[in-house]
């Protein structure tokens, strides 16, 4: 098909899909009106074999009454309340029932009110058959076309000139026979990629019945269904199920030789914004079963709505999600700060689109800035009248920072210190540092730099008049009054963040393996990126100044177990000594420089509850500012000269629990 025709089809489809509901209903009613009239005319013509004009003139009452009766019956059965693009084989029954009732009513009308010439009963019989066929075909063709099919493909399919679709498809079982499952079947019917063979559902009321032409089975039958139907995939259509219930289902499916996937949210499917190609891998949060606590909207709004906010490191995994969540709460101004042009470009473009959808109340400004450029950063904060800074700019990859120590120190420690100083000088009300569980008893430079960043902010928070003399890079700044509230939020790994283990495992699975795990016993805390960002925003509202908050990360997860589960959920088998013919192997590469087997969130195991069940306030030692400055001066010099032993000695004296991983191993 010519490219221009396909482009035209897409435009028309887009126009129709976004018409108001009333306009769509009117189009359907007018279409049905003309189809009914044509079927009636064809029936008369085949019976009487006279000119159409003569037929209409002779039987004008029939042509006036019949479409009116049919459309009223259709309307009373709520046929015009259904979504055309999700029409499937079930419309045959709907139209058969509607046309049958209409035909009986028409027969009754013209029996009670006779007309001349009389209405031949054979005409009604032919009309009944033609109407069912024509109306059903119109809905199915419209549904297929609205899902992207071309008219030539539709007619070839109907004529049976194309190969049976089942041979082209991947056999799939849909877990969930509710509304999402129905819409998924409709979407799959337009695709050559998947062929649904059955539903599986927990609801006994649906089991053994047929939904959208497919039988609904109990979960215990799924293994037999997979074997007898050559099923390769199970699609989860459970948007309203709790995360715990989804985890139970995923665990139940894990031992089976199938690829488990999930569908987009029901809202996206209902709006026609998602295609079958968007069927995705199962959400890793569902695999872990971590149930998120709904956000406290009062806390989210408290320090965001109508305020002027800046986010440093706006292009990173956490910084970008913070920016998205902040935009939802509609601040007056959102300034995006990052030193990477690509990062700023991407998140700014995304938020501009989202802002328009939210009514455009927030002004979004992109700024290419390094947090190490204290002068430019202070001017930006002052010029835009920033109320709150969320500081997410940091180097976070342990092995990289371990081999680039000075840059890690500069970016994480001095970058935080300079950003905080800029905030104090610009009169910023609140400053929030995104920290990490690696700051607790660190075994690597990255964790040590994050703990030093926390200590610097805790020290500054206690100073009403800050004297920067002697501080690396800040000696030229005069003493300044400090009215900024400093907050630190500490949490563990976030799922699917850049460079994290989940995307790496999935890429390795797609490449055929092996999966690389550092150690069989290594464990990590995990949290979803949106949940982490929301909790950071809520912790900001709870801050009294100088607080270190820790987020409840749930139970730690063994990385080896996670790797094995992802292999099984991909429909593959592990290659082991017991199963040498398996699909994918796991290789243990050894603990990397600076890496821990286990992570911690608390230094002294003491924390106080807050009004949010997932946010705790830590109680930790603070080093006064006048004692911390000489430490930073000595560290700066040692890092610059790459004096590894001196750095380790200074860090050990700071009493942050620093113990290099090499010493731990000994």
Largest sheet: 9 strands, mixed
Number of domains: 3
Q: Can you identify the CATH class of the largest domain?
A: Alpha Beta
The order of strands across the largest sheet is: 10-9-8-11-12-15-20-24-23
Q: What is the number of strand segments?
A: 24
Per CATH, the architecture of the largest domain is 3-Layer(aba) Sandwich
Class of secondary structure makeup = alpha/beta
Q: What gap, in angstroms, lies between the N and C termini?
A: 69 Å
Strand content: 5-15%
Mean pLDDT: 81
- Rg for CA atoms: 33 Å
How would the global form be characterised?
elongated
CATH structural fold name of the largest domain: Rossmann fold
Helix coverage percent of residues? Answer: 40-55%
The residue ranges in which pLDDT falls below 50 over 5 or more consecutive positions are 160-168
Q: What does this molecule look like?
A:
With about 675 residues, the protein is of the alpha/beta class. The protein has 3 domains: about 5-160, no CATH class; about 165-280, Rossmann fold; about 295-495 and about 525-555 and about 600-655, 3-Layer(aba) Sandwich (Rossmann fold). Helices cover about 50% and strands about 15% of the residues. The chain has a 9-stranded mixed β-sheet, with helices on both faces. Helix 24 packs antiparallel against helix 25 (about 645-655). The longest helix has 28 residues, at about 20-50. The radius of gyration is 33 Å and the shape is elongated.
Short key terms for the protein model shown above:
single chain; 666 residues; 7-stranded mixed β-sheet; Rossmann fold; elongated; alpha/beta; 9-stranded mixed β-sheet; 3 domains
